[in-house]
Amino acid sequence: MAVGPAILPVLHPINGVRLGIASAGIKKPGRKDVVVLEIAEQATLAGVFTQNAFCAAPVIISKEHLRQGANRYLLINTGNANAGTGAQGMQDGYACCSALAEAVGVTREDILPFSTGVIGESLPVDKIVSALPAALANLNDNLWAEAASGIMTTDTRPKGACVQFSYEGQTITLTGISKGAGMIMPNMATMLGFAATDAVVDAELLQALLKEAADLTFNRITIDGDTSTNDSCMLIATGKSGVVISKENETLYRLFKDALHQVMLELSLAIVKDGEGATKLVTICVESAATQKEALATAYTVAHSPLVKTALFASDPNWGRILAAVGRAGIENLQLDNLQIYLDDVCIVEKGGRADSYTEAAGKKVMSQENILIKIILNRGDISETVWTTDLSVDYVTINADYRS
Amino acid sequence: MAVGPAILPVLHPINGVRLGIASAGIKKPGRKDVVVLEIAEQATLAGVFTQNAFCAAPVIISKEHLRQGANRYLLINTGNANAGTGAQGMQDGYACCSALAEAVGVTREDILPFSTGVIGESLPVDKIVSALPAALANLNDNLWAEAASGIMTTDTRPKGACVQFSYEGQTITLTGISKGAGMIMPNMATMLGFAATDAVVDAELLQALLKEAADLTFNRITIDGDTSTNDSCMLIATGKSGVVISKENETLYRLFKDALHQVMLELSLAIVKDGEGATKLVTICVESAATQKEALATAYTVAHSPLVKTALFASDPNWGRILAAVGRAGIENLQLDNLQIYLDDVCIVEKGGRADSYTEAAGKKVMSQENILIKIILNRGDISETVWTTDLSVDYVTINADYRS
């Protein structure tokens, strides 16, 4: 199941990025499961990684190499997460990097590895290394869509986004792909995102822009709060357009920032919509909170409530569940009388109880939609936050209970 | 579905407590839905209540009357939670108390009201008041089992516990009942517990004992973290045995404390075992944590992880899910290398990865049991904490999605 149509937009090439894809037979023979992403010299890179205390080996290595190297290649495999694999996992990750480095004539630190798939099984280094010649042989700048398929695990659809904008007669392109069926991959490790632009952005600014965009997109989606050990999101700026992004040129900076935000939002919402068993895309806006912390605590408590999520699945305007979730979000001195809750533009809670104007029919109508907005107005300050989530369906349980049996 | 046999133990009467039960027809005609619990004069009372910011009206009133009154009666209804009902809800709660007070010749503050059932609908005061004469007419000290049924909502079985112990030739009895199918009642408000003893315990000590016992029992069970607006747990000491519990008599104090803990534990585990859709009772022990906070954060993160819970449902020893949940529990500087995880006595994780001695068959055997222990040893200090939970089954979603449709 997934929400909305499975349309992959046109993914324009980024001058300075080439992609190669091959079959290593990691989990299924013949499946495209290795992607090599080649980055032009002089490009800048930025990365954000999982906050899980148990980073997978490829995350540890990528963070290390991102600090050390003049990074030229991303090496991505699906089918095995190389997570929970101890010292051997680190050796295996390094071995794959070294093999690719040798094949293309760079150093090991120039390679960033990414793995997604089953946790706790050894990375099949030989299979991956054997697939490298084929991947390098088909390096091409127009394979983003194929790469989007090549990094899938239990995803039901490839995910990509592309935004172009013009500035003084020049076109700047941002293209990205992502994978993950929520944060919630069964025994899988999970979210990967790769985006690139032909703009010139220095490394420090690129990292700041990625961090800010990820915080408002990838870090605001949740299916059930199960953060994986492998989550990684990379942003590459090849500089090939010659258009320089800097804070000095405010107009251009704003245009670029908005375009980046849009690409990242589309990539992350694609993950939510492909969430396991998902039938609804749910936007939770918390408005007029006193602090960001309480806004997010409220939004996530509602987003993670199994009772709210099953009500969403049932298209049931069961507003007491939303109210109860807000009430247990841990906000001090929260006054029920000041709280308002809306489903789209239907007010369900105000003045300490059900809104006078509320009718079950109006609530039911919103809850039956595929896209639902839950707006919670705390009336305590001027901070707003938005998170996105899905419903909790019978299919979610079936998928996650059946996965290894 | 529920875990284990549905056996209600013998619930011995408590001298000084009488119960009366009647049908008010709140939700279903003929259903016993009103319980009056009469408490002898000179008894002491203690109570612990929901931490949800949106307390239901009966919780607010009970807390108020507990401070003010010489409490003589508990008035409990099922079928309507009188929650999310604003100012009208408070009036309705007071009206029921006043009616009972008048009927028995005490003041309103001597009555503590408790409601459980649907949120957001007005309390049917007239129906409840009409049922009071019948409830008072059958007041009897041997109706604990009937009262356990009388406070049920979607519970599939009545819940009660009784412990007796002897001290210097005297028998002290503790009897209790509870209701709730987890914290997770669909649109219902939820957990109620009522226990009584014939020991003499002064009010301050009784409150401390109840708080301590509740923290280790009722406050350590979770189905999905959805705390209700109505959770209440009361402890009554009638004093009729004449046996005085105080810290001066350490032996007797310890005996009483242990008996109270046992009654509360049985009452709370009965709720978990009757959790919606539950097929497993899961005990999560976190050992050698540095602080209570990190022990509980770890235990609850595992207990609330939908991926862990669906693996439990599937009897799938999917240890990577447990590891990933521990990793996202927010513990600073957690070292994977020092961590050990056991399923019963089967070591699944040590030295940074899957234990060498681990076999899938051994893991599968434990996961197939109805009672499962997940032991997580952090090796950071000397604090241990235990929480209890259930699996997440297809039935859980079905029950909660179908409830109002």
From TrEMBL, chains A, B:
Active-site residues per Swiss-Prot or TrEMBL entry: 190 (nucleophile)
Family, as annotated: Belongs to the ArgJ family.
Lineage, opening ranks: Bacteria, Pseudomonadati, Pseudomonadota, Gammaproteobacteria, Oceanospirillales
Alphabetical list of SUPFAM superfamilies matching this protein: DmpA/ArgJ-like
Species this protein is from: Neptunomonas antarctica
An individual GO BP term: ornithine biosynthetic process
UniProt-recorded name of the protein: Arginine biosynthesis bifunctional protein ArgJ
Superkingdom as given in the UniProt entry: Bacteria
Signal peptide bounds: none
Pfam family, one: ArgJ
